[in-house]
Amino acid sequence: MQALVIVGHGSHLNPGSSTPTFSHADTIRETGVFDEVREAFWKEEPSFREVLRTLESDEVYVVPLFISEGYFTERVIPRELRLEGWDVSAWDSEDGVSATYATSRATDVEKTVHYCGPAGTHDSMSDVIVRRAESITGESDMGAGFGLAIVGHGTERNENSAKAIQYHADRIRESGRFDEVKALFMDEEPEVDDVTEFFESPDVVVVPLFVADGFHTQEDIPEDMGLTDDYRTGYEIPTEVDGQRIWYSGAVGTESLMADVLLERAAEAGADVRGVDDWTQSEPEGVADD
What start and end residues bound the annotated signal peptide (predicted)? Predict the structure, then answer.
């Protein structure tokens, strides 16, 4: 038997924080390729520490629904799962975006755990970002005249937080899919507050590389960009700011194509996903290189 565990951060303050995790788990559960599919959280129930005890399967694939490699994916989750002899070097990721998977034993439940890199650094996330941009504009062949801003939180405490954003910006830029592609941040330079200063394109699509919609994506970023003075009054899509049309998408993690990324992470770690017809969604054209 094989099981899939999708682990997310969760929140005591934002009830919608866990929604994408449950939604993508449901999508994968419906494919029937795993005997068991579970969700687990740091700030909600079921917890990281308890989730393996709820499984009957001996073979478990754990995929973090996190954006970047860092404190939670490298230390907290392996510790709470009690992975025997865990060492982050087993991921063989020296650049902060290349973690694949490492196989360990969960000592207290005697299960084999294939611990995967975070969903946010997988190459297929570039496709999800493009799909998100397409869905908010309604343009499946957007290109000329469109710029793309990929927005991350950014933090001086963890340099890998910015690396994931820049990685996907570079990949999408190289694809030639948009006239301009920039990586912007909330808490470091270049800042999303000044989004119009970084683009010449008349239309700019802004996609936050966040797992779930919350305070940052629903309140801070729209106000910082000048879409509205008060998020509670709402704003139009697109909104004209400094003579440019800003198309704001909200968190990329809510995009249904995310389920494919989770499946691919597990498949690369050895999960048998045969029987899923063309995964769960069709991919956008022009970014994936495999």
Answer: none
**φ, ψ (nearest 5 deg) of residue 112:** -85, 125
Asked if residue 149 and residue 86 are part of one domain, the reply reads no
- The CATH number of whichever domain residue 136 belongs to comes to 3.40.50.1400
State how many domains the chain has. Answer: 2
Residue type, 290: D
CA angle 101, 105, 111 (to 5 degrees): 105
- Same domain, yes or no: 18 and 65: yes
Query: Do residues 30 and 61 share a domain?
Result: yes
Kindly list the averaged pLDDT for each block of 10 residues, start to end, along the chain of length 290: 95 83 96 96 92 96 95 93 92 90 92 96 96 88 87 74 92 94 92 95 96 90 94 93 95 94 97 73 54
Taking the CA atoms of 248, 251, 253 and 256 in sequence, report the sign of the dihedral they define.
negative
pTM for the model: 0.91
Instruction: Tell me which residue of 44, 20, 5 sits closest to 251, measured CA to CA.
Output: 20
Does residue 280 sit within a domain?
no
